[in-house]
Specification:
The complex is a heterodimer of chains A (about 325) and B (about 400). By secondary structure, chain A is mostly helical. Helices cover about 70% and strands about 0% of the residues of chain A. Chain A has one domain: ABC transporter involved in vitamin B12 uptake, BtuC (Orthogonal Bundle). Chain A has a two-stranded antiparallel ribbon. Chain B folds into 2 domains: about 200 residues, Response regulator (Rossmann fold, 3-Layer(aba) Sandwich), CATH 3.40.50.2300; about 150 residues, Response regulator (Rossmann fold). In chain B, about 40% of the residues lie in helices and about 20% in strands. Chain B contains 12 helices and 17 strands. Chain B has a 7-stranded mixed beta sheet, with helices on one face. In chain B, strands 2-3-1-6-7-8 form a 6-stranded mixed beta sheet, with helices on both faces. In chain B, strands 4-5 form a two-stranded antiparallel sheet. In chain B, strand 11, helix 8 and strand 12 form a beta-alpha-beta unit. In chain B, helix 2 runs parallel beside helix 11. The chains are: A mainly alpha (about 325), B alpha/beta (about 400). At the A-B interface, helix 1, helix 4, strand 1, helix 8 and helix 9 of A face helix 7, helix 8 and helix 9 of B.
């Protein structure tokens, strides 16, 4: 492999990983944008989505389906996981966050951490399900193999640079979702209501906007994005585990803060940046320094640009 | 009438007295507790379950008692759900619980070398003998093989109270490098999980590889919680090694690395140490990613290769539990037998007596043949083996070194 090919390959890997991070980061940033809550449970909602995907795969025996049927299976997973994670995230808001709307921000934050623990443990129980895809459920906490529904052959034939169908799958799922999300927020009535609530929820309520419902819908959409991300993650990495939500959530949260929390393009930019920095650091520095470099960059950006790369510079609301 | 009643009463009294006297003669002289501390939560569970079964089998074969003393056994977990792996806080808690339990005379564990570091000084101060069925990091016992202050830092009282049944990584890493050369590897890329065990064995592998003329073209520590290793694989592929060696365990993501190596188009060999010698590794990696080009070294023999005492263990295990033991079950069984024999031979049935008796273990008729403990607490056994993976199963290839 020539140096330029290595660089190109790392860029492809970085972008694919970054896209997945960005998709999760959008869920963080949307919720933060509207109620200024860092929804710590988001990463774990994402993790439960991946468990649902594996359960569906096992229930229908999708591994044995012919190729084009498997494609339909992936669509089924995407739709079910999005609906499931959206509903779960909506329920968290309804049960754990809405009653605390008037309490201090700290109570809300602690409540979110609690929800995260509950979801992690649900994942641990889920992993113990006696199904073949969960290796019989004997070792509940063990990482689970997610069968390769998207093949790994090189689309570029004999070229040294590899682009596998899984890379394409990541793009095919995430880019339309991001476009749809921007359209929804910028161009629709619901989007306008969301922006209004984000700007000033009291004024929005006075204008007749059902604030709680708009917040609930925001949670649903954020969760649904996490659901899509969980399927893409599982297809790309082929391993899921009850602890994956923590690391994925951490990366996505960092991406959201890096890009400017509350900003949708910021989350995407942050995700792609982290994905690429990780890949380049693995190649040109050393893997053991990668985390240090990623968080070092985060610290530097927050020192010199506290609102992140694309964050608004307006003052924090009180 | 009264007289008659008195007669019956006295008869009843005598017989009940007699009964008490009889019961006393077989009643236990007391209870001695053996604790084990192993990661029971997480993917090591399948492996540790068979170790615990091995310990229980040894105690059951002794009839649950030694020379009138009842042997109690308690199975402690040193992992936490948050980590899904051994946890230093939990391991310290277990070791402290052992020191506070006045009946505790032996501690079987740990599974992970890093956990042993935590428990060893605590148990050493309390004078409790510790026998590990699985730790392989050399610095725990061997002076000059680890950090400068090892192993004395684990023996604050100066007495050796830690013993292990399996050969250490300074033997396993060397044999692994030799085997890699025999398999035709000229250029090797070495990875490790940055843990005590993984980094230690990777270092030994590198050092020996260099002396036998195998080129090390890369050395890097991985992030065991990463979602994937695709960018690392690109870096590896760019320098085209014949073999990738990973010093790590199933819990530190050896399976994901195997997956990403294949997904990234790497077609060379992949070699891992005994921390991956468990079914969970094959399940995590997916067998199609391992078939044919994955090699696993192990400081002992797999159950189906055991002969003599070891074969008897395997059959007894199968008869009792209806399944085959994982690699380390035989060593759990062996550790418990060492402790039971020491209790039988101890001059005093207390911590000091049992400790002295374990240290004096010589020519033990074990599952790997006859062996003794040396002055550091290491086994004299030198039997290691190499395995590969075929159709989702480990297949024995050869005895290494010997």
């Amino acid at each position: 492999m020539q140096d330029s090919e290595v660089f190109l390959q790392q860029l492809i890997t970085g972008l694919s990983n970054g896209m997945i991070i960005a998709l999760i980061a959008l869920g963080y940033t949307m919720v933060y944008g509207i109620i200024e809550l860092i929804n710590f449970a988001h990463g774990d909602v994402f993790m439960l989505g991946a468990f649902l995907a594996l359960t569906l795969l096992g229930m229908f025996g999708m591994e044995a389906w012919p190729q084009h049927w498997q494609l339909a299976g992936v669509v089924l997973m995407l739709v079910s996981c999005a609906a499931f994670c959206g509903t779960l995230n909506w329920s968290l808001d309804r049960l754990a966050y809405r009653p605390l709307r008037r309490a201090s921000k700290l109570s809300l934050l602690v409540s979110a951490i609690g929800c995260s623990f509950i979801c992690t443990n649900l994942g641990l129980f889920w992993g113990g399900m006696p199904m073949d895809v969960f290796a019989g459920g004997v070792a509940a906490a063990a990482p689970k193999d997610f069968p390769q529904l998207v093949p790994q052959y090189n689309l570029l034939g004999e070229s040294a640079v590899r682009v596998v169908p899984a890379d394409i799958a990541v793009l095919v799922v995430t880019i339309p979702l991001m476009i749809a999300l921007v359209y929804l927020v910028k161009r629709t009535r619901l989007g306008r209501a969301m922006r209004a609530v984000a700007q000033d929820s009291t004024a929005a309520a006075l204008m007749g906007i059902p604030v709680d419902r708009v917040i609930g819908v925001t949670f649903f959409i954020g969760g649904a994005l996490g659901g899509f991300a969980s399927v893409v993650y599982a297809l790309y990495n082929n391993t899921i585990g009850f602890q994956m939500g923590y690391r994925a959530g951490m990366d996505a949260f960092t991406a959201a803060v890096l890009g400017g929390i509350g900003s949708l393009p910021g989350a995407v930019l942050g995700g792609l940046t982290i994905g690429c920095v990780r890949a380049m650091s693995d190649q040109y520095v050393e893997t053991r320094w990668t985390n240090t470099i990623v968080f070092g960059i985060l610290v530097l950006i927050l020192i010199f640009r506290p609102s992140g790369l694309l964050g608004s510079t307006r003052r924090e609301k009180v | 009438m009264t007289h008659h009643a008195l007669c019956v009463l006295s008869l009843a009294l005598t017989s009940s007295l007699g009964c008490t006297a009889w019961a006393q003669s077989t009643e236990s002289k007391g209870t001695l507790t053996i604790l084990s501390s192993l990661p029971r939560t997480g993917s090591a569970n399948a492996q540790t379950t068979t170790i615990v079964n091995g310990i229980k089998l040894a105690i059951a074969e002794a009839g649950g008692q030694v020379d009138g003393w009842t042997i109690a056994y308690q199975d402690l977990d040193d992992a936490s759900p948050q980590r899904g792996n051994w946890d230093p806080a939990v391991e310290a808690q277990n070791a402290n619980a052992a020191t506070k339990d006045a009946t505790c005379i032996a501690y079987i564990g740990t599974f992970n070398s890093g956990a042993a570091k935590v428990a060893m000084p605590i148990l050493n101060r309390a004078g409790i003998v510790m026998v590990s069925p699985a730790n392989t990091y050399p610095g725990l016992t061997k002076p000059g093989k680890g950090e400068p202050n090892e192993p004395m830092v684990y023996r604050p009282t100066g007495t050796v109270s830690y013993f292990r049944i399996v050969p250490t990584d300074d033997l396993q890493g060397v044999q692994a490098a030799d085997w890699a050369k025999q398999l035709g590897a000229k250029k090797v890329f070495v990875l490790h999980d940055r843990e005590l065990y993984g980094k230690g064995i990777a270092d030994v592998f590198c050092d020996h590889a260099k002396t036998i003329g195998v080129e090390i073209i890369g050395f890097d520590g991985t992030d065991s919680k990463a979602a994937n290793y695709r960018s690392l694989v690109t870096k590896i592929k760019a320098v085209s090694p014949d073999l990738v060696y990973f010093g790590g365990t199933t819990q530190t993501n050896a399976g994901q690395i195997a997956k990403d190596l294949r997904a990234g188009g790497y077609e060379g060999m992949y070699m891992v140490p005994d921390g991956c010698f468990e079914q969970a590794f094959i399940e995590a990696a997916g067998d199609s990613n391992l078939n044919g080009n994955t090699y696993i070294t192990f400081g002992g023999l797999p159950a189906d290769q055991l002969t003599g005492r070891g074969a008897a263990f395997r059959d007894a295990y199968h008869a009792k539990y209806g399944s085959d033991p994982e690699a380390y079950a035989a060593y759990g069984y062996e550790a418990a037998r060492v402790v039971l024999q020491a209790i039988a031979e101890a001059k005093t049935r207390d911590r000091a007596g049992v400790l002295a008796a374990v240290a004096a273990t010589k020519n033990f008729d074990g599952v790997l043949g006859r062996w003794s403990f040396d002055a550091n607490g290491d086994t004299s056994s030198r039997v290691l083996s190499g395995q590969t993976v075929k159709d989702g199963k480990f297949v024995f290839v050869k005895v290494l070194g010997g």
